[in-house]
Amino acid sequence: MRHAVLSAVIIWLCVTGSATSQVADLRSTTEFRVCADPANVPMSVKDGSGFENRLAKLFGQLMDKPVTYSWFPSGMGFITKTLRAGTCDVVMGYAQGDELVQNTNHYYTSVYGIVTRKDGDLASVDQLTDPALKDHPIGVVAGTPPATIMARAGLAKDMKGADLFVDRRVKDPVGELLEGVRDGTLHAAVLWGPLVGPRIKDDPALQFTPLLKETSGPKMFYRITMGVRPDEQEWKRELNSLIRRHQDEINKILHEAGVPLVDDYGKELLQ
Length: 271
Hints:
With 271 residues, the chain is of the alpha/beta class. It is 34% helix and 23% strand. Residues 31-257 form the Solute-binding protein family 3/N-terminal domain.
């Protein structure tokens, strides 16, 4: 019996040791390999124009490694088919707290907000509980945190939903909502800042007002990290060090792109 137990322990150690070795061996030592959606405008785009593409380029330069991509539509199966499959080593722009990946330290914090016409009746609205929103058609992506607050505020009948998980190579729900506000078929749209800010930063007609005053329901601000495989502690520490030492450069890219940045508590907009 003793020999059987000892043999089982040895086998377990060999198996787990081998698995750990295999996980460690997944990371490339010659390339900065990024997992990304090819059409997640304005974050990641296959032509390299997204702000997350520019951040990836910065990190590649800091490591003196070329940036390569494993492209796959975001949504169900994204992490399994990319990061977990070993075809890439880091997911840019990943919300803190998701259990599918190991999060690095966050490199920015952003916020949901309301998009309105600058000359519209709702231009001064900065809270989802504002009675002025009632009886106005308002776009929102289904399943996102503000949709919950809007429903509780009695706006369910006014909400015009767009799908959360779509193949953005063929559909652009955020773009459609923005066009609705532009042409007046929608009077407002409640959207995630990084998806909207870069699209309308030079728009003469539209404005983005961050939702910094909500007091109940899901939070409106989220810390954004990079995602790595759960066992890759050394890789996470390397990225954390780069984030800490190059935060000013990161912020510059985000500001230039038009991403609305808030403090870590979602209370103040950073200029």
